[in-house]
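Late entry, adenosine-5'-triphosphate complex.
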Amino acid sequence: MDPIRNPYAPGAGARPPELAGRDDSLRAFDVVLARVAQGRPERSLVLTGLRGVGKTVLLNRLRFSAVQAGWGTGKLEARPGLGLRRPLGAALHMAIRELGHPDAQTVLGTLKAFVERDARPGAKPSERWQAGINAPLVVGRADSGDIEIDLAELFTDVAGLAADQGTGVAVFIDEMQDLGPDDVSAVCAACHELGQQGLPLIVVGAGLPHLPAVLSASKSYSERLFSYHRIDRLDRRAADVALVAPAAHEDAAFTPDALTAMYELTGGYPYFIQAYGKVVWDLAVESPITGDDVQAAAPEAEAELAVGFFGSRFERATPGERDYLRAMAELSADDVGTVASADVAERLGRKPQSLSPARDNLIKKGLVYSGERGVVSFTVPHFGKYLRNNA
Ligand SMILES: Nc1ncnc2c1ncn2[C@@H]1O[C@H](COP(=O)(O)OP(=O)(O)OP(=O)(O)O)[C@@H](O)[C@H]1O
Ligand SMILES: [Mg+2]
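Prediction complete; structure with ligand written out below:
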């Protein structure tokens, strides 16, 4: 069918033509926004899930809800080994601009001090990173160098601006599991402090399934700070909507057989739905798309996933790490490869301790996570199947 009218959008963070099956999270977030703006106690949301289930696009959609509610918003993506000050500074800068408060200069000056405190010790002033904030520097607040103190002060001041306007500020942090331990701890402490004061600033996070464990290892009260939403594969009904609604916009349809075949092949994982949808649309001759069309398109869809979704991730692993991944794939039967790390070691004929570096690096690279002690899983759905067939 006409590739120009193809509605499907496989890609990291690519906005789907239809955001299916996420109404519960959207409703819950609207309640959070309304309550927090009124100074009522409320836990913020943290979205967790495997690669490609739609955390980033949902985070973006929640941000849109916040903007519609008149909130100031900003977003950052955590990166391993990268400090919080600069990206968070940029996100809050954006949020303050969105608020449009006429007297934001002092808070902007404090924000500038917070960001520029990041300069490496001993760096010459000319080498210092400039925050690019057009306001006179305000010293004495949020610039102590202790991230926990500084963040609490900064959040308090920014939230004060929003409170003044009867709205709030929402900071969205994607890949939140990649924040460094001090930064995680500071974010939790600052949210805790703001909640106690009833100030309207929330942090909305998204990350891999072990993010709740990362947060509670940092601050035991994090379970009471955040309400965790597990973002999962779509159920059959939502998966059908994700395919049928965008097609209907283009005056096209799927037969019931086609939808059944699509669900079997994609397992309801959003990335796979978009990837298959895209290929099936291009290869089908006419609407309605049939079960035969889906079967005929499957090899090409799998080939594209092998390159774009699986292969690009597998390439990040070193040869030793690849052995580890292959052993996981051989040992596991489910689609996320959950296995005991001791079994992986036995399979490879190695001592468990000698494999810890490989395992830890795979976790750092976001390919593997450990949901509970001694157990590892793939962060990428269907990764085991891919490895068994291709690697
Ligand atoms: N609810 C949904 N309905 C239909 N398609 C969706 C939905 N959520 C996400 N998608 C599609 O799935 C793909 C992956 O989405 P996204 O990048 O947000 O996943 P992610 O969970 O952030 O993945 P990663 O962990 O790799 O960052 C995109 O192509 C997006 O369009
Ligand atoms: Mg993402």
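The chain has a mean pLDDT of 94. Will revisit in the morning.
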